[in-house]
């Protein structure tokens, strides 16, 4: 059976997932990437490590969003390559790109099967959603099966008209073993990295990782951290990542005299990232809007307690409040402060929550995602395939 999977970019996290999928007997997998990376991403991909069939399309992005980079992708040569490929099944990445719509029409015209992947939840309520809603419902109605990134994504698909029995939940996943292993660096390595970053040996590190954009709640976190320092002067905020608000955050740090307490690392390569989790005590993702939040998977695999906002998709499936972290109302700075302080003042709780994080995330690895994708494929399989 010929399966064509579409993906906007080549994120390093996706490579092991697609490699495992390509090994399934009876499935001839081809992956079309719209581009190698995106304007708002800086990851480097060693294409020699890609051990499955793939092609990179000629495409361009139509950007939406003033404070965030939200593209609608158009491809020049997708239709030609699609007709040459002649897949039995097409797995589309959602409804925010032109190739997905072309795939839906192709499947209808030629009697092929469309599987729709979705991370979207009810919480991303904005003008783009309202404008594109007719097209969104078109994609949902065309699909023969669905792969939802989590419980909230599944619920939103049902709200859009998808039948529950056709939805397969494949939780967004990372290489759990990799993060678990690398984050457990030797004490000497951790001391060296903390020293390099200017973190004191007795400092308690609150970590954030993600794009430095308003949607991620970065200014909420900075406001919260200012208050936390009044009670915990030995706390350090480690902000890993880059984004449109980098200059604004740097100014905020200067204006509020936080230069010795807030560390901006800029982009950190995926190979080094687990070590940054390894020197941290708590992980916080305060997003006001987040379909999933893969950094929560990474933090949990690294043995950290996690604090996140209630509009973060991953929180509904991965965070058990009072067990491996806390969930606060997104945008509520005082509630975020309370949650962080609970963990800063109690080392035994941090350790216990971190152990629970490792235990929980072991059930959300690559294997379960690959299994969900395969189940969706076999559910639409036709006799002639």
Automatic annotation (TrEMBL):
InterPro entries: Glyco_trans_1, Glycosyltransferase_grp1. One of its GO terms (molecular function) is glycosyltransferase activity. Transmembrane segments: none annotated. CDD domains: GT4_PimA-like. Residues 193-358 form the Glycosyl transferase family domain. This is Glycosyl transferase family 1 domain-containing protein.
